[in-house]
Amino acid sequence: MKTSPLLSAAALLMALSFNTQAQPEYDQIARGNYIATLGDCTACHTSNEQQPFAGGVKLQTPFGVLVGANITPDRETGIGNWSYDDFRRAMNEGVGHNGKRLYGAMPFTAYTKMSEKDLQDLWAWMQTLQPIDHPVETNQLPFPFNIRTSLLFWNWINFTQGEFKPDPNKSAEWNRGAYLVEGLGHCGTCHTSKNLLGGDKSDLLGGEVVEGWYAPNLTASDHRGLGKWTQQDIVSYLRTGVNRFDIASGPMADAVRHSTQHWHEDDLNAVAVYLKEGEKSDEEKPEPLAASDARMKMGATIYEAKCSACHSPGGRGEKNIFPQLADNPLLNQTDATSLMRVVLAGSRGVETDVRPTAPAMPAFAGTLSDENIAAVLTYIRNSWGNAASPVEAGDVKKMKESLQ
Question: What is the 3-state secondary structure (H, E, C) of 128-156?
Answer without folding.
Answer: CCCCCCCCCCCEECCCCCCCHHHHHHHHH
